[in-house]
């Protein structure tokens, strides 16, 4: 009986929607490029770009995450996503949650948020969950 309960708990704890995926990015001269995912068009594809922007100057560390959302649905939408920054060894250095609200159908929204990272070199961003909901 104990084996069945453990097996049920292990299976119930798995959620396919919470898979970690590389964050989309675009290459620009002032930003660290990130991996881009290719897949079927879904709400996750609305996150066009999510990357690190190293604004450090004069010995002061200043690293931000910046994003671009394009609402491909026919309704005004709210977006929320969880992310993590990992080093080359896969060690999580920082994680966070971002929110973009009231994005009209077809509209593009850009945002940014500071991080506590000490460097952007060799850091990869992963999206650990992503949600789009209808905005009222």
Question: Can you tell me about this structure?
Answer:
- It contains 1 helix and 7 strands, in the order H-E-E-E-E-E-E-E.
- The protein is mainly β and 136 residues long.
- A 4-stranded antiparallel beta sheet has the order 1-7-4-5, with no helix packed on it. It has a 3-stranded antiparallel beta sheet with strand order 2-3-6, with no helix packed on it.
Please outline the helices and strands:
Elements: H1 2-13, E1 21-22, E2 47-54, E3 63-70, E4 77-86, E5 92-103, E6 108-114, E7 124-134
Antiparallel strand pairs: 1-7, 2-3, 3-6, 4-5, 4-7
* Model regions low in confidence, pLDDT < 50 over at least 5 residues: 1-17, 26-40
Shape descriptor reads globular
Question: Gyration radius, to the nearest Å?
Answer: 17 Å
Q: How do the SSEs run, as a string of H and E?
A: HEEEEEEE
Task: Please list the strands of the largest sheet in the order they lie side by side.
Answer: 1-7-4-5
- Give a quick account of the main beta sheet: strands, pairing sense, barrel closure: 4 strands, antiparallel
Tell me, rounded to a whole number, the average pLDDT: 81
| Helix share, percent | under 10%
Task: Please tally the helical runs, counting DSSP H or I stretches of 4 or more residues.
Answer: 1
Taken as a percent bin, the fraction of beta residues is 35-45%
Q: Look at the helices and sheets and give the structural class.
A: mainly beta
Q: How far apart are the first and last residues' alpha carbons, in Å?
A: 47 Å
Number of E-state strands: 7
